[in-house]
């Protein structure tokens, strides 16, 4: 439970929770999975009307937060996504929208931005080298100046919702340095290979660029000037992911606690055995600690504080590990049921595991912290 | 010496946090020594050194704070405090980082005993003892644990018998940290042996050094001897020493445990001095020094361990904020202090483990003429103190599962049984 929400944020929270419960209960998620789909476009568009896509984008560029703190608002949504393992490209669309809105010369991309905000289009952030985790230097493909534009060559892997994207925000090296481009999915030379995901509905893709020609106007911000924006986008992606983890864990602990009251052995409920009570106490503590740290990180990213990068990494290094620790132990508490396809707990474990691995593993985030501390 | 910057107050007459902070910023360097400047033998700020002089120094520092107008920040004015808020205390704690403070007076005097007296004591207790403590004239300690009962605190068997206007105490208390240097103690004793255990207790605010009290020091594994055991032999305590009601000692003890969990967990608003949690504290810097000295600053594993230890400190700070807010707004029950208490035990344990790993063989030995690298090893040996002192982490887990998650209470063989029929172990 979040303590610090404003009345408007609580409204956003319940509206999102209600809508997700109606439009994407776990049964729907299983059905989407069986059909090999990741999410439903109509559902997404209506979610956009609730504000899912526009919170971190300033009003001047067509967005708007509910509380004046768009990043915090977005984590409220992400937490609800976690509680329901909801389908939809929440993190990436928000990250790309923020990137487009915040870049100098943003009106160049006003068209795409508008369609991201109204939910009619989806964009993904392509920024990781094949087989590599978060490492923007390694992840940037080559962008060679050519006439009044650039030619892109290379491959991105692990592109979240890349299979669904109508456009990509592509991380690349120009001679000036780290840069970002908007590349349309159906541009010549772009090929997208959807990958098999561990998650039920969160898709990933590999994107190949073979001599893809883009005009200079495809640049987001200035050529060579993307490093700060990339760090900011990364922080946003991670904090949304952490909020999702918080929601996942909270929900799993709720139903596991109930199960412990309902399930009997030797004539008494599981919830009466001290060994099991103590494990629940530990898991509650981890969940509360994660919630507290995620909320602090969200505020730091919102305020663009100097310690935001560190806090985000503290949150992810902790939540990434603890979330899977908790859910695995909850699997254990469910006995044999816990390892069946039929029981829902694996849907949560999938989401948590994918979140643990993407946008920096806990160990990668610890290395980031050490770098930031100048060890 | 008082600060020259003048206080700026708001409409209610309370000084603003910013104004208070600025005054503290000016006053501190003029009145408190920098830790870095302390002679090596005085550097033992961390409650380890057990000698009278360290306690005398703490009292003198407290008096300096009092005279400067920076003592008892969150205590009410009528009892000698400043009547300000936890935000003021926090600002002061931030400003005072790196300076010498009477840290050993925080636990239990200001964070546990003082607030318990504030909640449950008589007007006379408050006027007399809180003001004296804030002036640096009184140190308070806890006489709770006994040789036969620690976790099962309500099983206390120290006997208090009424004799006209006084009570006469017999029995023994143990693990009372710092009792040898203290003035008064909150002492839980049994006044009714026919009632079930929780209903036969009474809390006394008793003088520590008086006829019939014999104190022995107990040496700890880390070499300190803050632990004390007291033996009571017909100790006479006036009836005015009763805190709360006769027979109502458990209500007082419960409040005391509430404050103790907050204090140990790092959430007490009465704690004065730099805190380790929540920011890049001395702990992180010490670990960084350690890997530099051992040449492991580039070892990715060592770097990750440092980051992990640091992250635990940061998370602890945010958890404390969350739980404090949760309890204040009643979104969490008062027992939620067990969460921060448990986090403290678990994180301190992990941090001790990490420090040992980073120090390597240096933690096992140190040269007589070099830096005390063995300190890390010594802290490791004393590690479980963080899981025991302030109520064990097992008890914290019981409380979390039962009082927060609503799970079944543990079976207790002594529930509703007259205490004189309850079985005891050794
Ligand atoms: C550094 C330090 C400072 C201290 N300072 C003070 C002080 O100033 N004043 C004071 O009065 N006391 C003090 N104590 C004592 C402390 O409160 C007790 O040590 C603590 O409450 C545990 O009690 P015990 O030692 O009697 O252990 P026991 O109660 O005998 O417990 C032994 C073990 O059994 C476990 N256990 C017991 N009952 C249960 C149960 N129902 N369920 C699960 N596990 C259980 C405990 O958790 C522990 O692991 C201090 C202790 C330390 C380490």
TrEMBL record, chain A:
Every Acyl-CoA dehydrogenase/oxidase N-terminal domain range: 6-119
Domain of life: Bacteria
The Acyl-CoA dehydrogenase/oxidase C-terminal domain, residue ranges: 228-371
GO molecular function, one term: oxidoreductase activity
Enzyme class: oxidoreductase
EC number: 1.-.-.-
Entry keyword annotation includes Flavoprotein: yes
The family this protein is said to belong to: Belongs to the acyl-CoA dehydrogenase family.
PANTHER family (UniProt xref): ACYL-COA DEHYDROGENASE (PTHR43884), ACYL-COA DEHYDROGENASE FADE28 (PTHR43884:SF20)
Protein name: Acyl-CoA dehydrogenase family protein
Organism of provenance: Streptomyces xiangluensis
Record lineage: Bacteria, Bacillati, Actinomycetota, Actinomycetes, Kitasatosporales
From TrEMBL, chain B:
GO MF annotations in UniProt: flavin adenine dinucleotide binding; oxidoreductase activity, acting on the CH-CH group of donors
Cofactor(s) essential for the protein: FAD
Superkingdom, natural source: Bacteria
Record's keyword terms, sorted: FAD, Flavoprotein, Oxidoreductase
Domain (Acyl-CoA dehydrogenase/oxidase C-terminal): residue spans on this chain: 247-405
Residue intervals of the Acyl-CoA oxidase/dehydrogenase middle domain: 144-235
Recorded GO CC terms: plasma membrane
Pfam family, any one: Acyl-CoA_dh_N
Domain Acyl-CoA dehydrogenase/oxidase N-terminal, chain residue ranges per copy: 51-137
Family to which the UniProt record says this protein belongs: Belongs to the acyl-CoA dehydrogenase family.
Name listed for the protein in its UniProt record: Acyl-CoA dehydrogenase
Lineage: Bacteria, Bacillati, Actinomycetota, Actinomycetes, Kitasatosporales
């Amino acid at each position: 439970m979040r303590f610090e929400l404003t009345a408007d944020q609580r409204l956003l929270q319940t509206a999102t929770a209600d809508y997700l419960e109606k439009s994407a209960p776990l049964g729907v998620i299983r059905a989407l999975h069986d059909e090999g789909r990741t999410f439903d476009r109509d559902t997404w568009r209506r979610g956009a009307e609730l504000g899912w896509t526009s919170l971190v984008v300033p009003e001047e560029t067509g967005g708007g937060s509910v509380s004046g703190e768009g990043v915090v608002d977005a984590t409220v949504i992400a937490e609800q996504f976690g509680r329901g393992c909801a389908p939809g490209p929440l993190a990436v669309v928000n990250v790309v929208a923020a990137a487009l809105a915040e870049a100098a010369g943003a009106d160049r991309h006003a068209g795409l931005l508008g369609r991201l905000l109204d939910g009619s289009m989806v964009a993904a952030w392509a920024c990781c080298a094949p087989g590599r985790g978060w490492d923007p230097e390694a992840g940037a493909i080559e962008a060679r100046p050519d006439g009044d534009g650039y030619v892109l060559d290379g491959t991105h892997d692990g592109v979240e919702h890349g299979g669904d994207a109508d456009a990509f925000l592509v991380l690349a090296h120009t001679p000036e340095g780290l840069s970002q481009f908007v590349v349309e999915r159906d541009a010549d030379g772009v090929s997208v290979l959807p990958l098999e995901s561990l998650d039920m509905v969160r898709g990933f893709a590999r994107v190949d660029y073979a001599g893809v020609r883009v005009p200079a106007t495809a640049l987001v911000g200035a050529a060579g000037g993307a490093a700060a924006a990339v760090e900011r986008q990364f922080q946003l992606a991670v904090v949304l992911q952490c909020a999702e983890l918080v929601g996942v864990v909270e929900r799993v602990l709720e139903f596991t606690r109930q199960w412990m009251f309902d399930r009997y052995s030797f004539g008494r409920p599981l919830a009466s055995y001290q060994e099991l009570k103590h494990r629940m106490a530990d898991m509650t503590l981890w969940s509360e600690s994660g919630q507290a740290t995620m909320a602090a990180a969200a505020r730091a990213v919102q305020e663009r504080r100097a310690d935001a990068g560190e806090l985000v990494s503290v949150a992810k290094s902790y939540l990434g590990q603890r979330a899977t620790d908790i859910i695995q132990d909850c699997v254990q508490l469910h006995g044999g049921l816990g390892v069946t396809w039929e029981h829902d707990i694996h849907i949560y474990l999938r989401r948590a595991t994918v979140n643990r691995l993407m946008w920096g593993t806990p160990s990668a985030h610890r290395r980031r912290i050490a770098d930031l501390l100048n060890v | 010496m008082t600060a020259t910057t003048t206080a700026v107050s708001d409409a209610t007459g309370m000084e603003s946090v910013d104004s208070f902070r600025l005054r503290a910023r000016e006053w501190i360097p003029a009145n408190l020594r920098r830790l870095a400047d302390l002679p090596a033998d005085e550097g033992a700020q961390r409650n380890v050194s057990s000698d009278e002089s360290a306690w005398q120094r703490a009292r003198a520092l407290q008096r300096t704070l009092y005279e400067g107008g920076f003592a008892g920040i969150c205590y009410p004015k009528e009892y000698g405090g400043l009547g300000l808020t936890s935000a003021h205390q926090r600002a002061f704690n931030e400003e005072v980082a790196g300076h010498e403070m009477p840290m050993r007076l925080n636990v239990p005097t200001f964070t546990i005993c003082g607030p318990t007296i504030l909640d449950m004591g008589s007007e006379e207790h408050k006027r007399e003892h809180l003001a004296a403590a804030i002036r640096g004239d009184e140190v308070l300690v806890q006489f709770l644990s006994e040789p036969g009962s620690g976790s099962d605190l309500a099983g206390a068997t120290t006997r208090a018998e009424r004799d006209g206007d006084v009570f006469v105490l017999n029995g023994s208390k143990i693990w009372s940290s710092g009792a040898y240097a203290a003035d008064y103690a909150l002492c839980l004793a049994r006044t009714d042996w026919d009632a079930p255990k929780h209903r036969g207790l009474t809390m006394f605010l008793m003088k520590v050094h008086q006829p019939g009290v014999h104190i022995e020091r107990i040496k700890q594994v880390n070499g300190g001897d803050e632990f004390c055991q007291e033996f009571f032999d017909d100790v006479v305590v006036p009836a005015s020493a009763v805190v709360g009601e006769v027979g109502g000692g458990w209500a007082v003890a419960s409040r005391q445990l509430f404050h103790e969990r907050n204090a140990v967990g790092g959430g007490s608003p009465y704690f004065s001095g730099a805190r380790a949690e929540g920011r890049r504290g001395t702990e992180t810097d010490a670990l960084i020094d350690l890997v530099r000295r051992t040449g492991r600053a580039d070892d990715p594993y060592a770097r990750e361990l440092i980051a992990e230890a640091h992250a635990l400190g940061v998370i602890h700070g945010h958890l404390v904020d969350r739980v404090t807010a949760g309890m204040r707004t009643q979104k969490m029950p008062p027992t939620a202090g067990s969460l921060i208490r448990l986090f403290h035990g678990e994180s301190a344990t992990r941090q001790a483990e990490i420090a040992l790993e980073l120090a390597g063989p240096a933690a096992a030995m140190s040269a007589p003429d070099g830096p005390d690298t063995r300190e890390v090893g010594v802290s490791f040996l004393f590690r479980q103190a963080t899981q025991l002192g302030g109520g064990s982490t097992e008890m914290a887990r019981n409380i979390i599962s039962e009082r927060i998650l609503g799970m079944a209470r543990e079976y207790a063989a002594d529930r509703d049984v007259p205490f004189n029929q309850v079985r005891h172990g050794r």
